[in-house]
Amino acid sequence: MTHFLRSLALAALCAAAPAAFAQTAPAAPQTSSAAPAGLYQALGEKAGIARLMDDFVNRVVQDARIRDHFKDTKPQALKESLTDQICELTGGPCKYEGADMKSAHADMQINKAHFNALVEVLQAAMDAQRIPFAQQNRLLALLAPMHRDIITVR
Predict the structure, then answer these.
(1) What does the DSSP assignment read for 74-94?
(2) Tell me: the pLDDT tens digits for 17-42?
(3) Which residues lie below 8 Å from residue 28, measured CB to CB, with a gap of 6+?
(4) DSSP strand E in the chain: where?
(5) Per 3-state DSSP, what percentage of the chain is helix, strand, and coil (rounded to 5)?
(6) What does the alpha-carbon distance between residue 122 and residue 52 come to, in Å, rounded to a whole number?
(7) Which residues, other chains included, contact 134 with Cβ-Cβ below 8 Å and sequence gap of 6+?
(8) How far apart are CA 88 and CA 106, in angstroms?
(9) What's the mean pLDDT in 66-92?
């Protein structure tokens, strides 16, 4: 059952994590008027989100499946931008000022395999940061709708 739930979470994230594919500024999130109650706090607020994004980006630029998408990326700028994006999406006080998802990923030739690899990397970073599975699922569900604007190669 745990494997099944994890698979669902990965599928959901496949719609979310692509912000990391952006070169120097990830795409803007599709914000909703109501962030999931308590998710920002459950992720450790801005400091916890920054640690997660630091771990995530460090893993992404090393992953053989997707690192070529990041060869021109400034890792620190990406970490900061993703931190603001996730912070804002989860109800924190941050303001994300990056590009929208669709335009940021338009010319990146991202397919489902790339996207799925990115999701796996995010999952590994969340596990390493000891984010509880329920909170991982909440974040993935929040990010999931973005996949339509990220996968450009069908």
Answers:
(1) -HHHHHHHHHHHHHHHTT-S-
(2) 434 333 333 444 444 446 788 999 99
(3) 85, 96, 98, 99, 100, 101, 104
(4) 27-28, 99-100
(5) 60, 5, 35
(6) 9
(7) none
(8) 23
(9) 94
C-alpha dihedral sign at 15, 16, 18, 24: positive
Q: What is the pLDDT of residues 94-116, one digit of tens each?
A: 999 998 888 888 888 899 999 88
Residue 48 predicted with pLDDT over 90: yes
- What pTM was estimated for this model as a whole? 0.78
Question: Residue 111 has which token pair?
Answer: 């397919």
Enumerate residues 6+ apart whose C-beta is below 8 A from 89.
29, 31, 35, 96, 142, 143
